[in-house]
Amino acid sequence: MFSLPASLLALAAVSHASPILVRDTNDTNPFVFTNYNGLNFTQMNTTLSNVTIFATGGTIAGSSGSALATTGYTAGAVGILTLIDAVPEILNVSNVAGVQVSNVGSEDVTSTLLLSMSKQINTFVCEDLTMAGAVVTHGTDVLEETAFFLDATVNCGKPVVVVGAMRPSTAISADGPYNLLEAVTVAASPLSRDRGSMVVMNDRIVSSYYVTKTNANTMDTFKAPEMGNLGEMISDTPYFFYPPVKPTGKRAYSIMNITSIPRVDILFAYEDMSNDTLYNAVASGAKGIVIAGAGAGGVSTSFNYAMEDVINNHGIPIVQSTRAMSGEVPISDVSSDTALHIASGYLNPMKSRILLGLLLAHNKNMTEIADAFLGSTDD
Ligand code: ASP
């Protein structure tokens, strides 16, 4: 017989009694509602949608002794409840529950953490009919990798909005609070469904499939240089330029039964590059390699021979991407008759590494991996 999930029944009971449960300020317990997954809400207004914020750390949770410091601060110092409390306007938009996944600078985010967070989002958000979407707070440095991973592995139409900040929470004009409010607004909006994972910062909504950090310091850093933005935040409303659309070549992967992601190294190509860099990666245990090649994936003649040796004699897939800020590596620019070369298409080296790791985790063979990357140029 069809039965409603426990959280829906609980919500129905709550809404019958009163549409809004808010915190009693004399009470030390900051939560008013706990759902069937154990997620704690600081408010339950049944006329609003529910969003879960998964906090990982980064500058958005950063703290400094100086209100002028935008460098040299401690990333990942402030907890998720403090972040939510700093933006009470969030509670006009959505009921929120916070999950403290970690509290680290994004440089310390690992594939183990990514797997665990993606599983939690699939379970706590995708499978829960009462949940509208997820927000992930994250350091900005490797944010695009996490956003791409979640885009590929959270398998439902609900939005996953990844957000960070370029100024620590203690700076004058910190961008974190407004970015967080905008991220929750996008995650709560029905307009955001079926758009995959998105990065929301600096009033822009950008596809996680294409977004990259373009500037090491300034707030207007997250862009998809050729593909543009999906939309903008205008005051408190998301404005999408197009109806939902799937990026060309995007594929979905289930990670629910995956326990680890094989090691994939990125090698940056440069003038007079030594072949040793490639053999050192293989000797150190890389199961896949991405080359941030010059221009459309280019490497020297000698390095190309070394790559063919590694592909043919070590069975290690090598994806040729580009060290240029944008543009495509087409298969025609890297293919040969003597080895199975793989071109990254429009995926930059960081996103190529995430995709190659996912494919290896699913035990895909060299031909299947090459096919999956071909999909990034033509679906
Ligand atoms: N180093 C920080 C991080 O990625 C920078 C930031 O969050 O903006 O965690």
From TrEMBL:
<dbReference type="InterPro" id="IPR040919">
    <property type="entry name" value="Asparaginase_C"/>
</dbReference>
<feature type="binding site">
    <location>
        <begin position="140"/>
        <end position="141"/>
    </location>
    <ligand>
        <name>substrate</name>
    </ligand>
</feature>
<feature type="domain" description="L-asparaginase N-terminal">
    <location>
        <begin position="50"/>
        <end position="243"/>
    </location>
</feature>
<feature type="active site">
    <location>
        <position position="59"/>
    </location>
</feature>
<dbReference type="InterPro" id="IPR027474">
    <property type="entry name" value="L-asparaginase_N"/>
</dbReference>
<feature type="domain" description="Asparaginase/glutaminase C-terminal">
    <location>
        <begin position="263"/>
        <end position="373"/>
    </location>
</feature>
<dbReference type="InterPro" id="IPR006034">
    <property type="entry name" value="Asparaginase/glutaminase-like"/>
</dbReference>
<dbReference type="InterPro" id="IPR004550">
    <property type="entry name" value="AsnASE_II"/>
</dbReference>
<keyword id="KW-0378">Hydrolase</keyword>
<keyword id="KW-0732">Signal</keyword>
<dbReference type="InterPro" id="IPR027473">
    <property type="entry name" value="L-asparaginase_C"/>
</dbReference>
<feature type="signal peptide">
    <location>
        <begin position="1"/>
        <end position="17"/>
    </location>
</feature>
<comment type="similarity">
    <text>Belongs to the asparaginase 1 family.</text>
</comment>
<dbReference type="GO" id="GO:0006530">
    <property type="term" value="P:L-asparagine catabolic process"/>
</dbReference>
<dbReference type="Pfam" id="PF00710">
    <property type="entry name" value="Asparaginase"/>
</dbReference>
<dbReference type="GO" id="GO:0004067">
    <property type="term" value="F:asparaginase activity"/>
</dbReference>
<feature type="active site" description="O-isoaspartyl threonine intermediate">
    <location>
        <position position="59"/>
    </location>
</feature>
<dbReference type="InterPro" id="IPR020827">
    <property type="entry name" value="Asparaginase/glutaminase_AS1"/>
</dbReference>
<dbReference type="Pfam" id="PF17763">
    <property type="entry name" value="Asparaginase_C"/>
</dbReference>
<feature type="binding site">
    <location>
        <position position="106"/>
    </location>
    <ligand>
        <name>substrate</name>
    </ligand>
</feature>
<dbReference type="InterPro" id="IPR036152">
    <property type="entry name" value="Asp/glu_Ase-like_sf"/>
</dbReference>
<protein>
    <recommendedName>
        <fullName>asparaginase</fullName>
        <ecNumber>3.5.1.1</ecNumber>
    </recommendedName>
</protein>
<dbReference type="InterPro" id="IPR037152">
    <property type="entry name" value="L-asparaginase_N_sf"/>
</dbReference>
